Amino acid sequence: xxxxxxxxxxxxxxxxxxxxxxxxxxxxxxxxxxxxxxxxxxxxxxxxxxxxxxxxxxxxxxxxxxxxxxxxxxxxxxxxxxxxxxxxxxxxxxxxxxxxxxxxxxxxxxxxxxxxxxxxxxxxxxxxxxxxxxxxxxxxxxxxxxxxxxxxxxxxxxxxxxxxxxxxxxxxxxxxxxxxxxxxxxxxxxxxxxxxxxxxxxxxxxxxxxxxxxxxxxxxxxxxxxxxxxxxxxxxxxxxxxxx
Length: 244
Hints:
Helices cover about 15% and strands about 50% of the residues. The chain has helices at about 1-10, 135-145, 220-225, 230-244; strands at about 15-20, 25-30, 30-40, 45-60, 65-80, 85-95, 110-115, 125-130, 150-160, 160-170, 180-185, 190-200, 210-220. A five-stranded mixed beta sheet has the order 2-8-7-4-5, with no helix packed on it. Helix 2 packs across helix 4. InterPro entries: Spore_0_M.
């Protein structure tokens, strides 16, 4: 009977289970996710070589969306888990710069897995709400002060780095555009913001295309960010008008 249980556990039946329990599933970029990983023994004793935690998202590839691991870290090294035993391991997981924000169109989730000697590795996934750090939050709030509504996002690879483009709907009748897109990149002393304005073609141009895209670059210094969204809103409005 013991041999049969071991054989079944080796293929995942009656094996140990892992479950990550977050204290809060919302976290700001630059802060930490905190919680515990609960490991519950199965029908036989097993050796857990390592518990791993990581953050995962998906990005738009050439033809399809690709699941991408942002990072994975070991939480605890080897231990044995007896049948029915429950063990808890607290964790603190930093959320680094470059982690995409969870906006419509972009998901981020915590992945927990255990390396089991001679058996199927169990896993667990939990959605995570990633909120902006202070710098990006100030730029987003500036756009919202102007009446723009954050409507979605797209994550892509750009020059070997994962980047996120945020899309905003303009306030009705105030700007000659259909969409504003912002890509914010950390830079020394502030943020590099790439603005893209989509606007409808009019006149003769509308015979050949329905929309134009115009791009601009805007360096927002730490000093400007520290003065808050109202100041940034004035400059953002002027830059959008120039592009549109």
